[in-house]
């Protein structure tokens, strides 16, 4: 009993010694910790709520891509720290899948040439392409003087069409925003330019493909029915320019400030915001070489460093921008804020856990940095005791996570994207029938069939090269695997030669006709092939239902088009006058509940403005 009494007394005394140390560590940590500085806005692009709202809508609108399958937000989702929860594999420089240089990047678009035709990619065929680097976190970009892993989006922002200097300094977010919509791997067909993007936005129903819109986005769309009206509200006139698109998106991104993590509350004076292990982890982190690059409240120095993740020859990184040999293999230092939400790390996404990252820095478990042009910090291992490492990981993954980011609550809330819906539309059904070489032609049907989509198309792959091909369309379902030939598109001659090497594209523009809202169609490729039963090989079937808007609110972007045929002519005037005389609410152009001369004047103005 006496021995046990001494042991208890000893433990109590140790606790008495430890407790003040923990309190002192907490006070020391708070004294040295820093709060995030005010968000910098360039003088040429100051904040307005209307501009931020427009930017949020543009950032999440999949119609910003050429084929309506990708938005900016597709690759930058708050719940994974502003990166991409989707994982695609790029085979890397050796062009061979499942080797050590594979890159875990972001899925993009199917390869399409400058004429918007599907063309098999050497690496991905007619599947979606995957980027050559993983998507960097978009959150915290407001503090960076350069963006992208290689920093090619610089501080000076020029309009990509006119070359006009718009922002002299501090415009990296604007510079970055104009890149992906024209990228042939990320969001576009080859050689897409901003003139084409602007024409498309002008005639698009904002967020027509999204569901579960946050309240602020829904309110703006309810007030302004098309993009020209939104730009009128923000910029004073309805002109859509690349510079204005970039400034709106960048303004929205500058509102995504993750400053409510436990660490931020701790800095503000809440000593209970961090646990004791997290405080110990913070102190150990601050005393380590980690703090040499991931510094301050931003947890990055925004520099470019080569830490030896892969050989330089695979990706020259910053060198591709500067041409400076010292920049070979250097990549941007990311912020560690919200790092606990990410599911892969490094510019090529090769590490899936923080434990693997610490293995890399410690040069253990077979991970040794590649030595070419290696940053001096990486020459010796950066390693910790098991307890210290656990505490640092605890601090990084938990104390730096803003719960609003993790839970996607305002301002990090977002709509559900079309690509995230559980039921595909178009959906590929059936099996098709084989042609030469016993190969069944593939149906490529990935584009949302929304009304007014002039670029809707279906593709065929793995068919007989050089053969004639048709697409049959019907509102009736297939019979014995074949779509009734109510409408026949074609013929076209497939590109390629030989069995299974034929490919082609059939365009089927969808009119902006609200009478088609909810109509189901079936489409199927038929390929003339002497080796096929009956001389025709058939693809599986694309089943699609046309729609105006996924929100259920179908807004007419051309209000004077009373006949809904996409053109303005005498028949629209006649239809308007008939509606006016009958008291039809659609003729109340002023929205004041009465029918008078002012409605006629407003209609004539809309008629003279034409359709987008």
Provide a brief overview of the structure.
With 612 residues, this protein is of the alpha+beta class. It has 16 helices and 16 strands. Helix 1 (2-32) crosses helix 9 (276-286), helix 2 packs across helix 7 and helix 9 (276-286) packs across helix 13.
If strands are numbered along the chain, what order do they take across the biggest sheet? Answer: 9-16-15-12-13
Whole-number mean pLDDT: 92
Strand content: 5-15%
CATH architecture of the largest domain, by name, is: Orthogonal Bundle
CATH superfamily of the largest domain: Cytochrome c-like domain
What percent of residues adopt helix (DSSP H or I)? 25-40%
Count of DSSP strands: 16
Counted by DSSP, the helix tally is 16
CATH class of the largest domain, please? Mainly Alpha
Q: Could you list the spans in which at least 5 consecutive residues all have pLDDT below 50?
A: 1-24
End-to-end distance: 91 Å
**Count of all domains:** 4
The biggest sheet, with number of strands, parallel, antiparallel or mixed sense and barrel status, is: 5 strands, antiparallel
What is CATH's topology name of the largest domain?
Cytochrome Bc1 Complex, Chain D, domain 2
Tell the overall outline.
globular
Computed Rg: 29 Å
- Please state the structural category: alpha+beta
